[in-house]
Amino acid sequence: MANRRIPITPKGFEKAKSDLERMKRIDRREIGEAIKVARAHGDLSENAEYHSAKEQQALLETRIIDLEAKMTLFDVIETDGHNTDKVEFGATVKLKNADTDELRTYTIVGEYESDFSSGKISIVSPIAKSLIGRTIGDEVTVTAPSGEFYYEILEVSY
Predict the structure, then answer these.
(1) Which residues of 78-107 are buried (b: 16+ CB within 10 A; e: fewer)?
(2) DSSP H/E element including 22
(3) Tens of pLDDT along 34-84?
């Protein structure tokens, strides 16, 4: 990751802190208990429950290390008080597809907190790149792997 800063909203940063805390305090304990119970079942060489719990433990520790490293690179970008006409990081943008009149709403966030299924798109996504710097009423062309789409910006909020 070469010390590249990772943009994140204040809400995303709080969620990351909460996730890390949960992994360290709750998930570690639960996996430790599962290992203890599986160990009590005897011969560890053929104990699938034990090996599964140990694998879960290794995955959890990897996730903890990864998130701790990312936390040092997070650049929390305040989104309150922005000009509500202009699309910037942290904006929630309501769009109308010019061809189908379908409405879509996206929130532009950092890569770590993006989740397309819940409308959170990464700042580096084709849609976000097309929207940044634009204002209400602008028509934008989004070039995505699946083709070109034309949208009108209806609303911008923070």
Answers:
(1) ebeebeeeebbbbbbbbbbeeeeeeeeebb
(2) helix 10-22
(3) 999 988 887 777 788 898 999 999 999 999 999 999 999 999 998 876 667
Q: Pairing relation of β-strands 74-76 and 6-8?
A: parallel
7 vs 123: CA distance, rounded Å: 9
Question: What is d(CA 24, CA 42) in angstroms, rounded to the nearest whole number?
Answer: 28
Q: What single-letter DSSP state applies at residue 129?
A: H
Query: Which residue type occupies 24?
Result: K
Three-state SS at 66? helix
Give the pair of three-digit tokens for residue 125: 């996504």
- Strand partners for 14: none
Position of tokens 């909460």? 18
Residue 8 burial (CB count, 10 A): 25
